[in-house]
Automatic annotation (TrEMBL):
<dbReference type="InterPro" id="IPR009072">
    <property type="entry name" value="Histone-fold"/>
</dbReference>
<dbReference type="GO" id="GO:0046982">
    <property type="term" value="F:protein heterodimerization activity"/>
</dbReference>
<protein>
    <recommendedName>
        <fullName>Histone H2A/H2B/H3 domain-containing protein</fullName>
    </recommendedName>
</protein>
Length: 74
């Protein structure tokens, strides 16, 4: 029984539809291989995502020693 194409199971010549089934699978495979466009993010969305990322991290964005020197001078 070829179950990949709807409606083929009710025909009596099921074995003749095996080629149709394989061609259907090849077409489906080609469609999935097509290159999808990457969705474009709005600039504010990117900025908010970066803000969340840096707030979660524990790394210092500026090196500690140069920042302390700068803070002492001013």
């Amino acid at each position: 029984i070829c179950c990949c194409i709807p409606g083929l199971a009710r025909f009596s010549g099921i074995w003749s539809s095996v080629n149709a089934c394989s061609s259907f699978l090849k077409q489906a495979d080609l469609k999935s291989r097509r290159k999808l466009k990457k969705p474009i993010d709005m600039p504010e969305t990117v900025a908010l995502r970066e803000t969340r990322k840096y707030q979660k991290s524990i790394d210092l964005l500026l090196p500690r020693a140069p920042f302390i020197r700068l803070a002492k001078d001013s």
